[in-house]
Amino acid sequence: MISAALVDLVRCPDCTAPLDRAGSAPAMMCTACRRTFDLSRGYLDLRPSTTFAEQTKYLEHELHADARHEAIAPPVLGSRIRNDMLRRFLRPGPGDRIVDLGCGNGRAIVWNAATGAAVLGVDISPYFAPEAIEHADLILGDLRRLPLASEQFDKAWSLDVLEHLSEPALIEMLREANRVLVPGGALFVYTHVRQNGWPAAGVRAVNRLASLCERLGLIDLRQERLRKSDHVNPLVDHAHLRRVAADCGFEVERITYYSPVVGAFFENVVARMVERWMSRRAARRLPAAAATDAAAGVREARRSAQARVRRGGLLYWSLRGATALMKLDLLLFGRVPTGPFFALLRKPHSPPGGAS
Q1: How many C-alpha atoms does 297 have within 13 Å on its Cβ side?
Q2: Considering the domain 51-346, what is its CATH architecture?
Q3: Torsion (CA) 327, 308, 214, 60 in degrees, nearest 10
């Protein structure tokens, strides 16, 4: 959707001037450089006219061949862990104006609609879910040049994004996030550094089990490898995180570490086994012409699983039970420094070194 509030918040990605409606056309126009921006698809295309050399693989169709972006099911497993931590750290609520930086298909916005916060999503990839397009303000834009007015958002979140950026791109992104936040505003992030703690040995053991299961034909991890193939992992360790955050105008106010040992077992082994079984069953029901498409069975299995989760019932509550067990990772290892982490970055009320 395109709300009146969105019109007031957006800026031209090229010259930073305000935008206005372009007459009766489904577009907006920059009031200074007169460039027009399409909004006919239900989201506003505010990509800069100059393309950055560094681009994410999430722009490639192959990464979306399993159609996971097409629908939004209730959060379970790792998605539930991340969303629960988001709510615990950021506490979104009525009156908050929030920007989701790297919103993907918009699912976190939909999951948090009931909080009453006004959330706007920005992503460089146009694979938004129809449900998100219908109910949320969405922008197709680059996080390194946010097409948004300065100091307009109380809070922001960015999930599974920072590890896809080089260090220069990460610094550009964080500085832009700082710019659009009000003084005292907060940014919640989930990402990881390269240096792992001792609990990572358990995660590696589970991943070796998953590789064995794949060799035996019990699971298929090709899509997951493709999705992680552009991980750059720019942050070396948590000291590096704090230096980069400070360089971008943030203080690391709070951090919880996440070593998903139990989580890796459920997500990389058990869930993948179920998905493999459902994919094979779905492939047998497909027409002969579609059966030659290797991803067709996975797409049908995901659509079926998402529909069943939305209806509730045995599958949904089984996944909720597994999610509860996965929270043991936070209870047991949440204070042990390791690669993956949840953090709250705070923009000070006054610039570093300035008057308080």
Answers
A1: 17
A2: 3-Layer(aba) Sandwich (3.40)
A3: -100
pLDDT at 59: 56
Asked whether the predicted pLDDT for residue 97 surpasses 90, the reply is yes
CB 262, CB 204: distance < 8 Å: no
120 CB burial (10 A radius; 0-12, 13-18, 19+): buried
Query: Strand 153-159's sheet: what is its strand order?
Result: 44-45, 137-140, 118-123, 97-101, 153-159, 181-192, 340-346, 251-257
Residue 51 per-residue DSSP state:
P
Where exactly are the structural domains of the chain? 1-43, 51-346
Distance, CA of 178 to CA of 352 (rounded, Å): 13
pTM: 0.91
Give CA–CA dist 119/97, Å, rounded: 6
Q: What is the mean pLDDT of residues 101-109?
A: 96
**Cβ neighbours of 286 (radius 10 Å):** 15
Cβ atoms within 10 Å of 231's Cβ, excluding its own: 14
Which tens digits make up the pLDDT trace of 181-228? 999 999 999 999 999 999 999 999 999 999 999 999 999 888 788 878
